[in-house]
Design brief:
Helix content is about 25%, strand content about 20%. With about 60 residues, it is an alpha+beta fold.
Length: about 60
């Protein structure tokens, strides 16, 4: 944004910590934000930690 004198004024960027959560993991209830990794599981989305736990549980069941 330019000021009346033609000087470029940079506005402060949004504080990511003030953003509301984009989703909540249905398995553990943790808040997930727009940059967090989520995995599609059974028609829904789980946080990365729960998805990794589920994968480990499935692998242990197969052996």
């Amino acid at each position: 944004m330019f000021t009346e004198t033609g000087v470029w004024l940079r506005l402060p960027s949004r504080d990511a910590q003030q953003a509301p959560p984009a989703a909540v993991c249905p398995r553990c209830g943790s808040e997930q934000y727009s940059l967090d990794t989520m995995a599609g599981v059974g028609g829904g989305f789980w946080c990365a930690a729960c998805a990794a736990e589920r994968e480990t549980e499935e692998e242990s069941r197969q052996t």
